[in-house]
């Protein structure tokens, strides 16, 4: 056996990852795909990689040096279980199975538990960066045991993206921690994309800029604190002209955004954990709304009652939008990291938040310089709750506030939907409020369900006898 590592599943992601692995000095990589044609095609296209091709799992296992390490890159869900079942048959205790697909973290927890009983290590590893990242260096978020990390860490470091000289991979935590963090990454990605889209919409509809002009604005923003891969590609998409019609491509793309589910998973998990990831949720819902043609058609005749938003100083308007975008982005990341903190507490993962921000600086879709500020914030205070309260972010949001309020208020009057901008501002105002109307909600709950309440002025749990004489009693149990 000569191969140092193997890849199962040779579609876009798997073949690119296999080529990345094979491109490192001295690496021999074993490859297997369910349908052999894909394996043959990869071998024919990339003879330079020196792949060791296997026709079945027995051959695959025999070609791997011990302890065997295999990365699964197949469709998430049942296909992943099918491949694991096969690998477990031919692998031995001490070997390592890495699932690099987009698995739901609870599936990873289940699989890790089952595979561990055989003595084989199972690692759920989130891999971000699409096909380009897989080939040239992705951001890798592995979970699993510390022993597995010890053994496979060096090879993952050798293929990961590099940010400021450091590989974008770290042992996130045990069992499903890696896939959980990858899920949050994708949720933040949804919010980031939606916020950028809202900024574009305002610049276009209120600022009156053309897509090409907005591309220039984004390119300019990309030299400052908003510098990120998503801002960079947004400029490129906006600059693209459709060959068939001569129109900006963005104008001929159907305005219905699809989704593969990881954003929805983030929101579902956050709902379970009780963490308000409102920016991410609005981004997921905005895609759902866009993809509801029947409802949108039926609503075309609804009244608008909008006010005209005329902009006198276009430069000042652009700056307002930029600041609103930056503040909302800080909220999205703050909420995402709060979800990581809550997930870590719920599932007993020792997740180093600053390390997560570090491994997102390159390779992945949300890569941005801004992540350095997050790492610094957690270095200053590892127990930090609500990232937005860290001095750097509090200052950044504070100076953006007047712009942010003008944009959200203006959009509401003009009838331009800004769900992520607006909900992020509402979240911010809710978070900093010294008193919330939750007191009234708690009163309502006590009225109809005897759910009790606590008082601001003394210890204990109380209930008002709403259907009796409306006196207050001290309640013994809470509902
Ligand atoms: P796909 O998600 O399209 O999966 C295709 C692969 O799964 C093929 O190799 C196929 O084999 C294999 N497969 C299936 Br389908 N059912 C199987 C089964 N029962 N047993 C064995 N193999 C089976 O590939 P992808 O787009 O390269 O993505 C791979 C993974 O990486 C996914 O989990 C994805 O979510 C994740 N991911 C993708 C991206 C991206 O940008 N595309 C980014 C990050 C993560 P066959 O050739 O025989 O049909």
UniProtKB/TrEMBL annotation:
Keywords attached to this entry: Gluconate utilization, NADP, Oxidoreductase, Pentose shunt
Gene3D superfamilies listed in its UniProt record: 6-Phosphogluconate Dehydrogenase, domain 3 (1.20.5.320), N-(1-d-carboxylethyl)-l-norvaline Dehydrogenase, domain 2 (1.10.1040.10), NAD(P)-binding Rossmann-like Domain (3.40.50.720)
EC numbers, comma separated: 1.1.1.44
Pfam families per record: 6PGD, NAD_binding_2
Domain 6-phosphogluconate dehydrogenase C-terminal: 178-467
Catalytic activity: 6-phospho-D-gluconate + NADP(+) = D-ribulose 5-phosphate + CO2 + NADPH
Binding site for substrate: 102, 128-130, 185-186, 190, 260, 287, 445, 451
Subunit: Homodimer.
Assigned protein family: Belongs to the 6-phosphogluconate dehydrogenase family.
Protein's name according to its UniProt entry: 6-phosphogluconate dehydrogenase, decarboxylating
Source organism per UniProt: Microcella putealis
């Amino acid at each position: 056996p000569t191969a140092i590592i193997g890849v199962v599943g040779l579609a876009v992601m798997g073949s690119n990852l296999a080529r990345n692995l094979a491109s490192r000095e001295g690496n021999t990589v074993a490859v297997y795909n369910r349908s052999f044609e894909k394996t043959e095609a990869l071998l024919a296209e990339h003879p330079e990689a020196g792949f060791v091709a296997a026709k079945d799992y027995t051959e695959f296992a025999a070609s791997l040096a011990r302890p065997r390490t295999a990365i699964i890159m197949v469709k998430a869900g049942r296909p992943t279980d099918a491949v694991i079942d096969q690998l477990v048959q031919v692998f031995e205790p001490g070997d390592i199975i890495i699932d690099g697909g987009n698995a739901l973290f609870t599936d990873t927890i289940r699989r890790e538990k089952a595979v561990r009983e055989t003595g084989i290590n199972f690692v759920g590893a989130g891999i971000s960066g699409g096909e380009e990242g897989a080939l040239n260096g992705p951001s890798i978020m592995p979970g699993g045991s510390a022993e597995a990390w010890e053994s496979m860490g060096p090879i993952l470091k050798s293929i990961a993206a590099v940010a400021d000289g450091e590989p974008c991979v770290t042992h996130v935590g045990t069992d499903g921690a890696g896939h959980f963090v990858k899920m949050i990454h994708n949720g933040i990605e949804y919010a980031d994309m939606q916020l950028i889209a809202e900024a574009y919409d305002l610049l276009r509809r209120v600022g009156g800029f053309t897509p090409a002009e907005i591309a220039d604005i984004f390119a300019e923003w990309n030299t400052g604190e908003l510098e990120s891969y998503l801002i960079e590609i947004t400029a490129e998409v906006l600059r693209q002209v459709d060959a068939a019609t001569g129109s900006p491509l963005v104008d001929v793309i159907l305005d219905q955004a699809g989704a593969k589910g990881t954003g929805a998973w983030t929101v579902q998990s956050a709902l379970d954990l009780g963490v308000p990831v409102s920016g991410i949720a609005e981004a997921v819902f905005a895609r759902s709304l866009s993809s509801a043609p029947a409802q949108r058609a039926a609503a075309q005749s609804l009244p608008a009652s909008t006010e005209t938003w005329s902009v006198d100083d276009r430069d000042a308007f652009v700056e307002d939008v930029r600041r609103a975008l930056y503040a909302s982005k800080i909220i999205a990341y703050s909420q995402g990291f709060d979800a990581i903190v809550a997930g870590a507490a719920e599932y007993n993962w020792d997740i180093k938040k600053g390390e997560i921000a570090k491994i997102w600086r390159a390779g992945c879709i949300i890569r941005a310089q801004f992540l350095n500020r997050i790492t610094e914030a957690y270095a200053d205070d590892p127990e930090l709750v609500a990232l937005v309260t860290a001095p750097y972010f509090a200052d950044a949001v504070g100076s953006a506030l007047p712009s942010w309020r003008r944009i959200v208020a203006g959009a509401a009057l003009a009838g331009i939907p800004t769900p992520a901008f607006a909900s992020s501002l509402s979240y911010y105002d809710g978070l900093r409020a010294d008193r919330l109307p939750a007191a009234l909600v708690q009163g309502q709950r006590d009225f109809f369900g005897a759910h009790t309440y606590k008082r601001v002025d003394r210890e204990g749990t109380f209930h008002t006898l709403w259907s009796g004489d409306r006196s207050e009693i001290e309640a013994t149990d809470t509902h």
